[in-house]
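Incident review: delayed structure delivery

Summary: a single-chain prediction request sat in the queue longer than the usual turnaround. Root cause was a stuck worker, restarted by the on-call engineer. No data loss occurred. The affected request and its eventual output are reproduced below so the record is complete for anyone auditing the incident later.

Affected input:
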Amino acid sequence: MLVLFFKIVFYEERNFQGRSYECMGDCSDMSSYLSRCHSCRVESGCWMMYDHPDYMGNQYFFKRGEYADHTSMFGMSNSIRSCRMIPMHRGSYRMRIYERENFGGQMYELMDDCDSCMDRYRMSQCQSCHVMDGHWLMYEQPHYRGKMWWFKPGEYRSFSNMGGNRFMSMRRIMDSWY
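Output delivered after worker restart:
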């Protein structure tokens, strides 16, 4: 059995300066540890960062590496306020995407990355999905650009509660990223 430890170190200032906070799990509100967060080192694991407490607001994906100034790298208007570990998945990836809410309209099954739903399927928008296997990142624009959301296995009948986003590209969160 593979045991993976997740670890990330947050810093108040850019370039890993100022007070720091070492995190090894989900954190719903970082304000009790740091007044702000402008850089971080992901020592292990993959993480989803949020610009509001309680896993709210815009989402940003971080994998192992150094982020000396993530606010300018990702165009973030705020600093990180909460974070979640993304569990490692080993095995196949499978997701069904639908052009309408409640699994309506055309359906396509994905087992690999899709950089443009329009180019691959002639699908102008994806408004619901069913993730059967793996963890996925979905983006509002083709070629993995724009706002992103993390999807774990489950049924997602409508994206309207996610700010009305429609997703145009999808990418698997691979175990090699950990």
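Verification: Residues 117-121 form the longest helix (5 residues).
Action items: add queue-age alerting; document worker restart procedure.
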